[in-house]
Amino acid sequence: MPIQGWGRYPSVDARIDLPLTVSALAGQVAGGDGLIARGMGRSYGDSALAPHILGTRALSHLLAFDETRGLLRCAAGTTLAELLAVFVPRGWFLPVTPGTKFVTLGGAIASDVHGKNHHLDGCFSAFVESLVLVLGDGSRVACSRHERPELFHATCGGMGLTGVIVEAELRLRRVESAYIHQTTYKAANLEEALALFEAHHGTTYSVAWIDCLASGASLGRSLLMIGEHARDRQLVLSAGRPLSVPVDSPALLLNRYTMQAFNSLYYNRVRTAESRQRVSYDSFFYPLDGIHQWNRLYGRQGFLQYQFVVPKAAGLDGLRSILARIAESRRGSFLAVLKAFGPANANLLSFPVEGYTLALDFKRERGLFELLDELDERVLEQGGRLYLTKDARMSEATFKRSYPLWERLQAVREQYHARGTFTSLQARRLGLE
Amino acid sequence: MNEQRVLIVGATSAIAEATARRFAARGHSLYLLARNGERLESLAADLRVRGAARVFHAPFEANDLDAQEALLARVDSELGGIDQVLVAHGTLGDQKACEASVEATLQELNTNALSVIALLTRLANRFEAQRHGCIAVIGSVAGDRGRQSNYVYGTAKGALAIFLQGLRNRLAKSHVQVLTIKPGFVDTPMTAAFPKGPLWASPEKIAADIERAIERKRNVLYTPFFWWPIMAVIKSVPEMIFKRLSL
Ligand SMILES: Cc1cc2nc3c(=O)[nH]c(=O)nc-3n(C[C@H](O)[C@H](O)[C@H](O)COP(=O)(O)OP(=O)(O)OC[C@H]3O[C@@H](n4cnc5c(N)ncnc54)[C@H](O)[C@@H]3O)c2cc1C
Ligand SMILES: NC(=O)c1ccc[n+]([C@@H]2O[C@H](COP(=O)([O-])OP(=O)(O)OC[C@H]3O[C@@H](n4cnc5c(N)ncnc54)[C@H](OP(=O)(O)O)[C@@H]3O)[C@@H](O)[C@H]2O)c1
Asked: Which stretches make up the FAD-binding PCMH-type domain (chain A) (predicted)?
């Protein structure tokens, strides 16, 4: 059966198993080789692709909840959407959430995902107290910052390469409302956008939507959205029906003219320099989840998401040079998101470093890979790197230069019987056999 | 609805799990019977976290008919009575294997029909005496007409449907609801090997329909709803024509 990531490129002919119990999963791991875990398949590239895929979706039980501390023990195939549905009405929220709730707990840990609060709260793993992993020999072990810390730090952000996470303990965040007070600011260019991030450093959530086609004096023009949890005691959202993209749209729909029109409409929709709204958590955190399978908008060829981070030291100029190259290419993006990162953590492969990250989509078409190679060079020159969970094509050299702790990952994998058992197309490409 | 005491048979089936979660969210008390002990235990934990008032569980092998009476006695004493029962276990056997083997055919009929009929025979007397409650059983649209691709499974589900019809007729005067649930294609472990298309539904969708049908005291539920017209058409094709179709 052909399986793909969210970007629908590349594709692998794989066997997928969906074990119903941890024992069944462990049995398949022990008897297998060249396999990788997969949750909801929301990683864009080839991180969750291998000839033999172990799906975790059937392992979706909530195991225990300590109401006083907000501590949840939960099977790793549970989605963040399922957690929100159960816990928001009880006054608990995810401590960190990516831009889609259709990811599993295991996937969130394996990619050590970040949210709009990274500058204050760090990555998802910061709220993971402990986890249970099925190792390459089929055995089951627990790890945490105190127990087998090297395994914990290799597994959080480790892209499934140390074993299959089957269970985790997650600390939830108390909230008093299912709504967010959102304020939107207009930034005429990149300099203004970064200044706004600085000015709102103390706000829990911040993110900017940036028009990657604007150039010259408007390079980096953007809308910055910040948010705080409301405190109005309204813990239940009124329901709406999701839209869906039922078929592959002709790729033509997404040429650069339509994108340009979209970009300027979006930017100009916000008329004042600052506007305030009370919005549901769904619309604040998951604007795209309302349109199921929006990835089909890019047509059959699929698309690539390119997300990089440049350290704060590289600053405005570093970011500007990369952005200018993207604007010049006119290959544009349907969505480009700019975000400020706080300090890096102790995990071996976690993506964030203190600085700025930009994520944008490129339709897969001729000449794109050459452009991305060129962008890689610029990112590396600035001391930056690319996010593995979005990646489908970076070179081994690029990876090893920008993730210097990869050798420690390999040592931990050796020690815990992961080598030879767990591998993905991405791991092979990056020289992590 | 106030707190109900619900017995779920074949509780680890994907459709039953999704339905149980809805019961748990309403604060019902649940008694779970299933064969897969490891999954059963973790399901019980899940339903407690989701808000079930009380959750009990016990191992269950459908074809051990002799164990049924003792099992029901245990349910009665631990749960303190049964207001609703949902029967969900089943196997989608290999039709070709059934054609080649009498044992395989009888096994299918045992698991999908006789084990359920035996259990319902015992339960019906309890419900008739208590004069309230709901008996909900998962059948299948496959039981509406025999087709070469799965008529052994269809036979079992069809037999169930007729048994439930009779039971409904008998228990109506005792105010007991008897609900025959007929799902179409559902994406569950049972159908993992099938390619999925637009007619396929999630277990969550089926669960929502089941919950509503119980609440509205329905008799027969086609789920999703569009299987009702589809099956009406399939049932109406004259046998002379039907027998020549490759369905
Ligand atoms: C619309 C959209 C918005 C997004 N926004 C953000 C964002 O804001 N921030 C961010 O950080 N990310 C974001 N992402 C990326 C997404 O959060 C990650 O790719 C996440 O890992 C996907 O989870 P999944 O369950 O789909 O995992 P998959 O895509 O199935 O797998 C991803 C990786 O995790 C591994 N994995 C999955 N489950 C397990 C397990 N149980 N044990 C071990 N390894 C496992 C896989 O092997 C693979 O390497 C976004 C993605 C989309 C589609
Ligand atoms: N999926 C569909 O498309 C579909 C369509 C129409 C009707 N149905 C019906 O829906 C019901 C639920 O099925 P599902 O789709 O949710 O599939 P499922 O998840 O595979 O559930 C089937 C369940 O039946 C249990 N079971 C099978 N034989 C058993 C036995 N001898 N003793 C005890 N338990 C036994 C299985 O237990 P183990 O895990 O221990 O094997 C499993 O929990 C079934 O009656 C099925 O016929 C399904």
From this structure: 9-175
